[in-house]
Design a protein that fits this description.
GO molecular function (chains A, B): DNA binding
Protein name (chains A, B): LacI family DNA-binding transcriptional regulator
Radius of gyration of chain A: 27 Å
Oligomer: homodimer
Number of strands of chain A: 12
Keywords (chains A, B): DNA-binding, Transcription, Transcription regulation
Strand order of the largest sheet of chain A: 2-1-3-4-5-11
Order of helices and strands of chain A: HHHHEHEHEHEEHEHEHEHEHEHEE
Structural class of chain A: alpha/beta
Biased composition (Low complexity) (chains A, B): 11-23
Mean pLDDT of chain A: 85
Region (Disordered) (chains A, B): 1-23
Low-confidence stretches of chain A: 1-17, 358-366
DNA sequence: CAGCGGGGTTGACACGTTTTAATCCGATGT
DNA sequence: ACATCGGATTAAAACGTGTCAACCCCGCTG
């Protein structure tokens, strides 16, 4: 059968690798190496089962023909692909970027590809993108759910696709999750601010619609209570987003309210804190002498800020790594897999922005 | 049809779609709707060819059975998938993050999924990940190549996979590319610094092995020459990475060298600039009074820095959008597609860090 | 009334791979 | 020398969808 379907109206007219060959599949490799397609498949998937001599011959043929396996056909036949889905809330947030790096590294090590999706904190987009992932027959999904309940992925789980919740503790025992102890983090921050001498506290938080924010707010309140302080010393400043601009907005509101500034401000997010910091400094407020400031996430830029920001560090990269390892484990041995809820402990990182006035004689040493 | 799956999100097990059903494919839908598989396929792909009545019936069946099309089979049969690959240099860089957002938005709009890869500025990883993309039979690839020559993707192009170069102008006419005019950007920055009164210039640049850095260095030199300045006024400070830590390192080296500081510093990257800024401020150097400072990329954090950083803005998000649109266009109508090299013009963003002492009477307006 | 045309629908095949059962061949044990 | 065994290889049957030619039905025209 002389299959010369070369009538390609193709654009880029061939160069480099053996071009012109319509599509080089397992069959072409087989005939070129003088074996059957089945053997080629074996070379690809269970090299140990094929004699060294033939294996070499096949590998040679693969190289010469520039064959790359067709993932679709493979997936179709095997029933599962070698890609995993990663759905984050916001790509622009360095927190998720770090997580994604961890995910990508592990996945890449194991030969998995990562399909990255961003829900943009929208329920509807989350659903739409999850559907795309389902169509792609991803092997599993790492999901930072938008809603409180992680049930947006129930559809996937019912279809037998493992789902690991990211940065979201789950009450349900029938799924894996990886998260950081938010309550402990809030406690660390609030206790630290109190220890630094603050009697009144401002709390800058994102839109309450966001699960993340709701959670962090609850956690802050609880930490306050645990610290023996009443809600009356707390001043909440809700803002519309979780970025630096919103932080500036929040600080302006605090300044213009006429009330005295709180002695310390806890921001639900480093981006917010950076914005707050800038406006305070511009207004001549001294940080931390007048107002102590602490953020959350410990993104890279906090350390580089004019007054280096205290923050609560989360093992973001590790978060991604562990979650991926958990997911791949669940994929590989779904039989004996025991779901586990991993909870990391956050770590307080104290920098200039919140050092007690007592211990810092010379902050900005210029 | 007693569909009792109405609003019962509470019960953990078995909810949503009919569970237990092995795999629901096009056939099951067909028999459930009393039509042939071919018709179901038509409903999915060419709805206009099927009568309204049957279409409704089929759609109903799809809904009831919770059918989602098997992308692998679809791809296999159709010969091309509905995913595109995006390979960036470094996920941790907000520049690429922004680009990725643009890509994701457009792709998502058109029903494409995005497979995100990071080469981590490593040639070997680029090759490995491109191979994975090839296996996945992506419809096309957006690539920010590591090497000077964008030939790492030639293998893909030969296989008929459209490749659009991202943030990398190409000399070759047989491919699309989207980039920002680096030379113009360098000129903007250098000219601006000179206009602000700087006579000597420091240039902090990343590892020369990186194409990005090599390019930006060349561009800076050229801009200098165009500005009528000799190389003798230039002081180069190469560093090992493109992040804030490296910037701090660079600034320290400048300070400790004993030579007088340059009157202005141009950083190849905002992250570097942030690091430089911090160290300068700590050392008591006034910005911009003593040293003017400008970065590149205009990432979000520059505006929020203690001394807001001047920068050269690139339309990052747009970069991603346009590149994706170009790619999808090339995919859809590969016949009549004319390759084009899009070149954006960068924009100078002047903030406090580089205002001439003359023009700023009152910078901090609070 | 016969022929015709066309929209709607159908079957069946092909896509490239994995996998299972069957086949082949040389070597081993008696 | 024959039966047997085991490793290496093969042939063929799926996997779920898209495509295309064929087909059917019905109304319309000559």
């Amino acid at each position: 059968m002389s299959t010369d379907d070369t009538g390609r109206p193709g654009t880029g007219t061939a160069s480099g690798a053996p071009a012109g060959t319509g599509t080089v599949g397992i069959k072409q490799v087989a005939s070129h190496a003088g074996v059957s397609p089945g053997t080629v498949s074996n070379v690809l998937n269970r090299p140990e089962r094929v004699a060294a001599a033939t294996r070499a011959r096949v590998e040679q043929a693969i190289l010469e023909l520039g064959f790359v396996r067709n993932g679709s056909a493979s997936t179709l036949r095997a029933g599962h692909s070698s890609t995993i889905g990663l759905m984050v809330l916001d790509l622009a947030n360095p927190f998720f970027t770090d997580v994604a790096r961890g995910v990508e590294d592990v996945a890449s090590e194991r030969g998995y590809a990562v399909i990255l999706s961003s829900s943009g904190e929208s329920d509807e987009r989350e659903q739409r993108n999850l559907r795309v992932l389902a169509e792609q027959r991803v092997r599993g999904v790492l999901l930072t759910p938008v809603g409180d309940e992680g049930d947006g992925a129930d559809g996937l789980r019912d279809r037998g696709v493992p789902v690991v919740l990211l940065d979201h503790p789950t009450p349900r025992a029938n799924q894996c999750s990886v998260a950081v102890d938010d309550v402990a983090g809030g406690e660390l921050a609030v206790r630290h601010l109190r220890d630094a001498g603050a009697r009144t506290l401002g709390f800058v938080t994102g839109p309450p619609g966001l699960r993340q924010c709701a959670g962090r707010r609850r956690r802050a309140l609880r930490a306050l209570r645990d610290a023996g302080l009443g809600r009356d010393v707390l001043r909440e400043v809700p803002v519309g987003a979780m970025n630096a601009r919103a932080g500036q907005e929040a600080a302006r509101r605090l300044l213009e309210s006429g009330d005295p500034l709180p002695e310390a401000i806890f921001c639900a997010n480093d981006l917010l804190a950076l914005g707050v910091l800038r406006v305070l400094l511009q207004a001549g407020v001294k940080v931390p002498a007048d107002v102590a400031l602490i953020g959350y996430d410990d993104i890279e830029f906090t350390a580089a800020a004019a007054v280096p920001l205290s923050s609560v560090r989360q093992p973001t990269y590790q978060l991604g790594r562990i979650a991926t390892e958990l997911l791949l484990e669940e994929c590989d041995e779904s039989r004996g897999h025991a779901h586990q809820q991993v909870m990391f402990q956050p770590e307080l990182v104290v920098r200039e922005s919140s050092r007690a006035a007592a211990e810092d004689r010379e902050i900005t040493q210029a």
